[in-house]
Amino acid sequence: MKIALVHDYLREFGGAERVLKTLSEMYPEAPIHTAFRVKNSRAGKAFSGKKIKESWLAPLLKLGKFYSPLRFLAPVVWRSMDLSGYDVVITSASWYITRGFRVGKNTKVICYCHTPPRYLYGYKTSVEWQKYFIVRLYAVVVNHFLRLYDFWSAGTVDKWLVNSKNVEKRVKKFYKKNSEVVYPPIKVKELVEASKGVKKKDYFLIVSRLVGAKGLEEAVRAANKLGFELRIVGEAAGFSGVEERIKKMGGKKVKLLGRVSDKRLYELYAEARGFIALAQEEDFGMTVVEAMAAGTAVIGFAGGGFKESIVDGKTGVFIEGVDEETIGKAMKRFFKIKWKKEEIQKWAKNFSREEFEKRIKKTVGSV
Description:
alpha/beta, Rossmann fold, 15% strand, globular, 2 domains, 39% helix, seven-stranded parallel beta sheet, 15 helices, 13 strands, six-stranded parallel beta sheet
C-alpha cells in the first residue's frame, strides 16, 4: 500500500507537527508533501531524515514571513500537487487548509483535522493582524474566496478524523461532515517514567508558543500580582509581539525558558506544582495532557478542548475567567485539593500514543 502524508508547512514545531511526527514514524516510507519547509527551523530539523516534497511555490512562501499574507495562494499550492499515484493520502490539516490536491480514482483521502482555519471562521488567532484597516480590508476579500475553497476541498475527503469533540463540532458546522474523534498522541509512558522519584517545586508551568490567544500575558500579570513563580517554556512565532510584551511586564517571579530539550521538558512538567492553561478556545491542548501524564494537576480555562482533557477536582481545576481575581480564587482551590499523582496519570493514559496509533491503523485499513 502506497501512503503519502500532507502537512501545512514545516517551520514552527507545535502540536500539529507532533502529530505529523508520529504519523511519519508509523509510516516511515511515506513522503511528506508540504507547502514549504524551512530547513534550519525547529520543524525543518525534526523531519530532516524524511523525504520532503515541497510545492513549486516554496521558494516564495519561505521568504521571511510571507507565508502568512500569501496564504491566498494555498489553493494553488494544493491543486498543483499530483498524488494520484498513492493508495492512501493522510493530510494533517489546519490553518493552511491542506486539501484539494489531485488524486487517482482509487485514492482514498483521510483528513486529520486539527481545526478548520481559525481566521476564516471568527476564532481568535495567535496574531491580531486584523487590527489595521488595510489588513482587515485585505482579509475580507481574500478570506471570502478561501472559505469557498475550504468548503469545496472538504468534499474531496473520504474520511474525517478530528483531534477533539470541540473540533468535531466545527467540522460539522462549517463543512457539514461527520467525523471521528482520535485524540492526539501523547507520550504518556515516557512522561510517567520521567516523573518517577521527582519532587515537586514551588512554581507553576506554562508550555506554549509565545503567541496571542494563549492567555500568556494574563498569566504573567497574575503571577506578578499574586506572587507565585511562573516558568514559561516556548518560542515566539509568526508576527506576534507577545514575547516582547511579557519582557516589558518584568517581574522577578516570571522566567522565560525558551526552547528546552524533551528530557528537560519532562522534568519541568514533573517538578511543577501545577500547570496553567488559559487559552479560551483551544482546539485540544496537548501540553495539558503531557502535564497530567507527568502527574501534575492543571488550572485550565473551562472552554475548548480543555473541557475534554481536564476532570475538574480530579486532574485539575476549571476557571471561568482569566483576570487576576479569578486566577487567585482558582489558586486557593487548587492548594486545598490533595492531588493524587497516580489518578492523574491514569486519566492521561486515555490520550496515549498507543491509542492514537491503533485508531489510525484501523482507519487506514477500513478505507
